[in-house]
Design goal:
single chain, alpha/beta, 6-stranded mixed β-sheet, two-stranded antiparallel ribbon
Length: 311
Amino acid sequence: MPARLIHLIALYLCLMVTTVCQAEPADLLSDYDIAESDKGINALPHKQIVDICNRIGKKLSSVSKQDCLDGNFDSPRFYSNRNNLILEKHFHARPDLHNAPRILFLGGIHGDEYSSVSVSFKWLKTLQENHSGIFDWHFMPLTNPDGLLQKKSSRVNANKVDLNRNFIPAETAINPIKHWQTYAKKRARYYPGTSPLSEPETQAIHQLIEEIKPDVIVSVHAPHGILDYDGTITPPKKLGPLRLKQLGTYPGSLGNYGWFVKQIPVMTIELKHAGIMPKRKDIDRMWTDLIHWVKLRTDGDGTLLARKSTP
């Protein structure tokens, strides 16, 4: 039988059985990804997740494409200036825990701080393997994909804005633009943008804060090699090799916004090197110390959850 006739018969049978055959393969995959992931089924990763993971794997020697895909990230909803996907992963607390501490974890706010992104992916993997459900975690391991993924990675985003100066400043803080013009001497790498939350990346973080109402925000940076902290709840004295050294906040920074505007403690982990990964034992020690501190500061007066029980 001629091949063309076989093809026509097969097409006719397909159309008789289901109209799905009329869709393009890419459409089928997209529908499957979104519908099945929404149902919680172990579906294929969304094509946008595959694309961004492929680019991250090519950029970072310490995070492979497969490492990224293994993150099993949530369905896409946040995008950068250049329409790059901002990955997010929610680790839910156990349903029987009605007052579990909520932690928002952010990496890669500055695109040239490679280690902050890599370590965030390492800790995300650790959490996947050991999540007990006693805490509620929301991870964004790379909040500035445009800064990281361009040919020469940069601190700022594609709109040349320092995302860590683009949040809403406290009422008592100096105007971010005035601070940049005077104290920062108009250095381009600290430009705060035309107005607070002018950037899609900071808008995404702001939306998450409004949605999940975290009890603490953890942000990973480099290369000061210290542990910074904003808030009145007693901070840890150290995380692994990093010792506590509170630097204060800048107008429009996440620390200034998180604590002085939203009254959410902000822990800033400043790794020692931007381009060199910490030793494996130090990565593990920092994570262990972080978990220990959250457990220690969960219940009782002056702790993370105390304000929830206040009438």
